[in-house]
Amino acid sequence: MRAIRWCVVALLILPGVWMAHGEADGRESRSFGTDRGYHSGAAGSPEELRSLASEYYRWRTVNYPVETSDQGLHTRDAELTDYSETAIAERRGHTRELVERVRAMETSGWPKDDRADWLLFRAELEGTEFFDRVLDFEHTNPQTYVDECSNAIFSLLKKDYDTPRNRALSATARLRAMPAMLEKGRKNLHSPVRLYAQLAIDSARSIDPLLNESLMTLAGDLSPAERDGLVRARDAALAAIHGYADWLEKGSPGMVEFKPMGEANYNYLLKHGYLLPLDAEQVAMLGQAELARYRGLESLLPDPSLADPNPARAKSIPADQQAFLAAYQSREAEMIRFLKDRRLVTLPPYLGPFLIRQLPEAFKPTSPGGFMNAPGVYDKDASGFYFIPTYEPKSRNFYIRAAIEDPRPILGHEGIPGHFLQISIANHLDDEIRRHHDDGVFVEGWALYTEEMLMRTGLYPENSAAQGQILRLSRYRGARIGVDVNLHTGKWTFEQAVRYFMEAGGLDREAAEGEAAGAASSPTQKITYMVGKWQIMNLLGRYRDQRGPNFRLGDFHDRLISYGSLPLSVVTWLMLDDPSPLNAALQ
């Protein structure tokens, strides 16, 4: 997945244990699984909670217009986010005020489902406040402003939600606003990080095809004056974007190389953000254990080289980009038949098509393997896309080699039964708070779990290249944990992270550099895969023990993803009536 909805990493805080700026507030910790709780004396009701949440979601669509477009609501397609210091301060102030109001709610007497929703909504607010305060990307990360430019146009292109002319006119308005927005970015970046700046430079200098080629496919129905306005706005935006990259490059030597959040903040995010009963050291140990397991399982293959994708072993090599995408797409029907025949998961009737497309150049620096675009939470179009890198049969890129030899492992992760299916179901939940929640550990953990689940249930022949690929994919997901923990706790440099991906994870340098860049840009995101899979496997075993002879694997899958994209500790509470993971996370 490319990013968590609204660029918020969920930060869940339970009563009596919230810490402001890393300092304990002195209140007594309470067990969340009982009727005891933090008593503030404040009023509050489930109805008030839901009203506040609805107002917040509406406020967010106004204040983040590009993300609003990306999520399928096209009421502000002509606008960019306001990055003036006044607007940034107002947004942060609004979030602080709202989170304080939600924290103060007395929920101990509420029904379980309402208390869970309070926890989830509080998480969204806490996450925003944490990232604003600790990482402060508007002032430290130049990617913020390049991403705004690329996503502003990409969100108008990826689906045919309106006529090409209307979308082109919206693009013209956004393009005209880009030079001023980038100028605000220059003024805001008083503490830019060199690594982030280099990634922003790479993205800025790769954006031309998106604006010169992809965007212009919308221009066919414009009048001559409208087309001229689009071209002039595009050229001015490109000049501003390249000027921004030149400015960053000139100032790069004076920037701090990388600024980790530190172990205390990292542990805080693990415990209160992901509600994990683990600290950074324990998460790193889990990564080492899983890395060792899958590295060893590769070695137990009759031919260990099967774990390293090799197009030469493929039955046929696609002739060009279109043939490559078509071959990728063709395997989806086979996988869906397998799922239905084995009754491994139920596909809802509203599920749309899942399509394979080429990765735009502007996104390659931090997404070397491509990324998934699920339907947005507001989307009326049920389709989804997976963006695969540009086809090059001689490429050493792991993802291209894997896709040529056998695309099914990655296709299953990104599509059905992975992200596309799971997020599509989450988007259809009646509960608004749960529909908007997007816990990365659940989302990535589920997709990684499905890779091995399909292998264990017989989709791939024994000792096949697909089985080898599954092991390599899990191996480097284990390596991701070590990189993420050590980068953001300040123990490793970026180059150490790249080498670890190559030596321990088994990736080529191109893929390793992209993986390390992604880890640096999105703190804690890289741990979500293996940690989530570990939690799901634990939940699976416990569910089977509870169900006994009535256990069926497909029933477990249907129940699990029926909850949406919630933290797995919350899912355990709702699914097994066991609050102990929540309590253990906070001790």
List keywords for this structure.
587 residues; mainly alpha; three-stranded mixed beta sheet; two-stranded antiparallel sheet; 25 helices; 5 strands; disordered N terminus
- Could you spell the SSE succession in H and E letters? EEHHHHHHHHHHHHHEEEHHHHHHHHHHHH
Q: If you average the pLDDT, what whole number results?
A: 88
Number of strands: 5
* CA radius of gyration: 23 Å
Instruction: Give helix % range.
Output: 55-70%
Descriptive account of the structure:
The protein has 587 residues and is mainly α. Among the domains are: 133 residues, no CATH class; 112 residues, no CATH class. The chain is built from 25 helices and 5 strands. Strand 1 and strand 2 form a beta hairpin. It is globular and about 70 Å long. The N terminus is likely disordered.
Topology, pairings included?
Layout: E1 19-20, E2 23-24, H1 46-63, H2 65-70, H3 85-103, H4 112-134, H5 137-140, H6 143-157, H7 164-188, H8 194-204, H9 208-214, H10 224-251, H11 263-273, H12 280-300, H13 321-341, E3 354-358, E4 371-373, E5 384-388, H14 398-405, H15 408-414, H16 419-426, H17 432-436, H18 440-456, H19 465-488, H20 494-503, H21 509-521, H22 528-547, H23 553-561, H24 568-576, H25 580-585
Parallel strand pairs: 3-5
Antiparallel strand pairs: 1-2, 4-5
